[in-house]
Structure formats: structure tokens, C-alpha cells
Amino acid sequence: MSSQNNKENREPALLVLEDGTCFEGVAAGASGVAVGEAVFNTSMSGYQEILTDPSYAGQLVTLTMPHIGNYGVNTADMESATIQAAGLIVRSISETPSNYRSEMSLPDWLADNEIVAITEIDTRALTRHLRDKGVMMAVIAHGATAEDAERWQKHLADQPDYGSGEFVGKVAHNEPLSVVVHPEVSGEEELGEARVELVPHDPDAGDERPHVVVIDYGVKFSILRNLDAQGLRLTLVPGSTSMDEIRELKPDGIMLSNGPGDPARLDDYLATVKGVVETYPTFGICLGHQLLARALGAETFKLPFGHRGPNQPVKNMSTGKIAMTSQNHGYAVRSETLPADLEVTHINLNDETVEGFRHKSLPVLSVQYHPEAGPGPHDAVDFFDDFAKMVREASA
Ligand SMILES: NC(=O)CC[C@H](N)C(=O)O
Q1: In this structure, which residue's CA is closest to atom 5 in ligand 1?
Q2: Which domain of life is it from (predicted)?
Q3: Which pLDDT value is given to residue 191?
Q4: Mean pLDDT computed over 87-100
Q5: Ligand 1: which of 286, 366, 369 to mutate, most ligand atoms within 8 Å of CB?
Q6: Tens digit of pLDDT for each residue in 274-316?
Q7: Residue with the nearest Cα to atom 4 of ligand 1?
Q8: What's the whole-model pTM score?
Q9: 9-164 against 168-395: fold identical
Q10: Cα Rg of the chain (Å, integer)
């Protein structure tokens, strides 16, 4: 057994769940304590994209793939400027990455970003527990052992619940920004992901490209990369932007981004969402999809353990085709509450929940899953073509 997997040589760490279930492990990343909602993701790779996805704010991410970190981390594969998850739970963490793109090991990157992690956890048992009982709050405590479990369970009881958290305000950008995407190319070949740069918005700058205003609730860079690749000019604005302010930006289309937390806590954003849907071609992804549904009168609810992974089967109700999709959500739209002018277009084949809808008379696309993947399969990437077509028609 290599030294990195030798429990005796390392600082102990403890994972305690809200219901008192505890797992002893080994400390990794920054030293300290991390509190959050324990969730699991079934991706075999893509840990860097997952950890930097702002939708994971406030959550301790368990990765079911047992060996994590083997290809290191790099500056190109970021989904936002930094790590957004509250902590990381793994079976085995690699300290010696091997990949030509690697710039740093995962444990060093976690430490540099002050993210507390725990390794040597039976992530299979933990995942089965969360699947049976539902996701719940948890704490990772470095230096603690099973004898300390009760004390940490009490500590956890005093922490605010994930569902009451205001995460969008913490992860989204709070001023208008323009998006510049720099593809990393060598000769003809595009290497890795394009670098995304956000610069202060200049209201007088503009170009020939159709203009999409992205309402940022915690946007993933891959959504911006995909929109940019469609030849669209992008301006990010905060969720609190009013309809009048959006009109001044003269958009040809609107993107409602992904983001963290319970959509039912974001009613302050709904007036703008309703206004843009009724005025411009609109595309909602994940939290954006949930807010779009709520703005038009539907309700959302919390799933028992959510959908997080790269292999969630989604059926297109009009073609019967099944796509393997990338997902990361804990809430969903309640289908029986959809108003008459919205029609379900996609369902999840695992639990038949709503994965997409269309508006019967307005140019609206809305999906619960992630067509941009990052990480995951690209089966659903055509949505960006469909949206760009709607935007171009509006700008013509
Ligand atoms: N990825 C997302 O946008 C997640 C949306 C929402 N926070 C949920 O968990 O359902």
C-alpha cells in the first residue's frame, strides 16, 4: 500500500451526517472544518469542473468514482474563477498526478484554495445512505475520530440548513461584465477548454454579433464558451437587474444561467425573468430553467437525493430519442403545476421528473440538465445551435 493510502501516517478526519451516521477517514486539502449539504456525483472524471461549478456552493461533494485526482488540475478546465463546493469527500485522492496538462495536484489545489477534504471514506456506503435517506447536512472535521462524533453532530445542529442559504449572491458577479473567450490553439488544433475572461462592461462597445444578455446566478464558463462559439456577443448581468436596465442593453436574446440553492428562495428575480421571457428569445439552464418555470406560475420541489452525474437518461417526448445528459440539481419543476402554455418536452427516465419544457407560442428553450456538459457527454449540445438560430432570427 502506498504511503498516501496509509491511514496511520496521516491526520485523522471525521465525516458526521445530520442523522448521526459517521465515517472515519483521513484529512486532505486545507486543514479545518467544513459544513454543507452532503451530495454525491457519479462522474468518473471531471472533478475540477465539478468543484468549480458555482451550483455546488454550500455542498460537500462526494465523488463515487473511487480514485480521484490522477490527472491533476489545470487553468483551462475551470468552470468559474475558483473552487465553489464547500468541501470534498473521496475514497482515495491522488497526490502524484500524471497528465501532460496537469499544473498542480488536486490535494495542493484544495489546500491553496482553503478547501477542506476527507479521503479514505467508504463512498459507496455513504452514497447508498444518502440515496436511501435523502441528502442531508454534514460536517468534515479534521483531527477528529469516532469518539468525537456526538460533539460534531451537535455542532452541525447549530448550523443553518442548506435550504435556507442565500448562495446566488455569493457566487454570481454583481456588476455588468463583457465576456471574452480565448481559445487555446496550437496550429489547427484546439487544446483543452478556451480561457474565459470577464471584463467591465462598456455600454458603447459593440460589434456585429447578435447580443445575448446572460443573467448570472452563478454561471458556468462552459455555457459562455458554447454561446461564444455560436458567434454571439455576451454581456453578464446580475439576477437583480431590472427589465428596464436589460432593455437598455438592447439584447437579441437572454440566457438564464445555472446557479446554487433553492429556486423557491429567489422570488425577487422573477419579475425580470417574466419580463424577458415575454420580450426576447430566452434559454434557461438548470436554476435558470427552474426560475423560468416559477416566473410563469409553476412550482419547484426538492428531490430526495438529486441528479448529479454525467449519465442521466433523458427522453425527448416528441422524437422518443434518449440522450445521456450531464446533471447537477437537487430541485425540480413540479410537472402538474406547469401552466397551460408550457409543454413538457423532456423527462428523466430514472424518476420521470421534468427535464425540459417549451412555450407554446414564445421562443423559449428550457432544460433542467446541462447541454454544455463540463463535465459530461455532448449529446445535448445542439440546444446552443437552436438558441443561436432563435437569436439570429430576432436580430435580423
Ligand atoms: N446546476 C444548477 O443550476 C442547480 C439548480 C438548483 N440549485 C438545484 O440544485 O436544483
Answers
A1: 287
A2: Bacteria
A3: 61
A4: 97
A5: 286
A6: 999 999 999 999 999 999 999 999 999 999 999 999 999 999 9
A7: 329
A8: 0.96
A9: no
A10: 21
- Identity of the amino acid at 395: S
Question: Is residue 259 within 6 Å of ligand 1 at its C-beta?
Answer: yes
d(C-alpha 45, C-alpha 149), whole Å: 31
> What number does the ligand 1 atom closest to the CA of 331 have?
10
Please state the residue numbers annotated as binding site for L-glutamine: 55, 259, 261, 287, 290, 328, 330-331
User: Domain 9-164 carries which CATH code?
Assistant: 3.50.30.20
Digit-coded pLDDT (tens) for 73-93: 998 899 999 999 999 999 999
Pocket test for ligand 1, best of 290, 326, 372 (most atoms within 8 A of CB): 290
Instruction: Give the position, in ligand 1's atom list, of the atom nearest the Cα of 53.
Output: 1
Each residue of 201-254: pLDDT tens digit?
988 888 999 999 999 999 999 999 999 999 999 999 999 999 999 999 999 999
Long-range CB pairs of 227-232, under 8 A, 24+ apart, other chains included = 227/255, 227/384, 227/387, 227/388, 228/179, 228/181, 228/194, 229/181, 229/384, 230/384, 230/385, 230/387, 230/388, 231/388, 232/388, 232/391
In the set 79, 193, 286, 307, the catalytic residue is: 286
Q: What is the pLDDT, as a whole number, of residue 3?
A: 43
- pLDDT tens digits, one per residue of 7-23: 556 899 999 999 999 99
Average pLDDT, the chain: 95
Q: State whether the beta carbon of 58 lies less than 6 angstroms from ligand 1.
A: no
- Complex confidence, ipTM: 0.98
Q: Which fold has domain 168-395?
A: Rossmann fold (3.40.50)
Q: Which of 283, 287, 327 to mutate to test the pocket of ligand 1 (most atoms within 8 A of CB)?
A: 287
Is 166 one of the annotated active-site residues of the chain?
Answer: no
Among the listed residues 324, 41, 109, 73, the one whose alpha carbon sits nearest the alpha carbon of residue 193: 73
Task: Please tell me the distance from the alpha carbon of residue 228 to that of residue 207, in angstroms, as a whole number.
Answer: 13
Known catalytic residue: 22? no
Pocket lining: 261 vs ligand 1, CB cutoff 6 Å: yes
Domain ranges of the chain: 9-164, 168-395
